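Human:
Care to share another protein and its fold?

Assistant:
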Amino acid sequence: MEHRKSFQTESVRSPLGELVVEGPLPPEMLRELEMHADLDAFRRPKEQHAALVEIAELPEGRVIVARSGTMIVGYVTFHYPDELERWSEGQMVDLIELGAVEVANAYRAFGLGKRMIRAAFAEGQLENVIVFTTEYYWHWDLDSSGLNVWEYRAMMEKLMKSVDMIWYATDDPEVCSHPANCLMVRIGKDVPLASVEQFDRVRFRGRFMY
């Protein structure tokens, strides 16, 4: 399968200086950058930096970053779902997970999350795949944001809707474990019907919704 990648770059003026949103970045470019100390939602910054390089090395992997000079202040990742997760059960070559979105606290007022995600979808790069993301409230930074769980959920939905991802139903136990959790999906215009039907079977494990 063809993994379409079209490098995008955008300059963003901010009170903290000029920022650059760009990607998908090749691993050699990522290795030259360093992580902001606040980017620790999933791993320690150094470990997360190594994980970003590993994702960029994957044929399907893509990493979009927001940076200040050589400092990564935000990133978005795309890759195949983990083999231990339900979403890999269909062994679909055209099902890609939007895995993580993180922006350092001081840089959250500049729309970087939306800019990074839009860069990933620019120029039809992801029209031949189904992109999904699972939003779990326990990953959300409720303390720093000052938002309650429903306000944060609304913010994440708005972010995903900026690239036409929409809410999809599922019986996945983790998604269903809390009403604020959700599955968001975008089906590219070049995705065959057979893949859409296979994804439906993964979402419900063969059960029918009426």
User: Anything to note?
Assistant: The mean pLDDT is 95. The radius of gyration is 17 Å. Helices lie at 27-31, 45-57, 112-121, 142-145, 149-161, 173-176, 193-204.
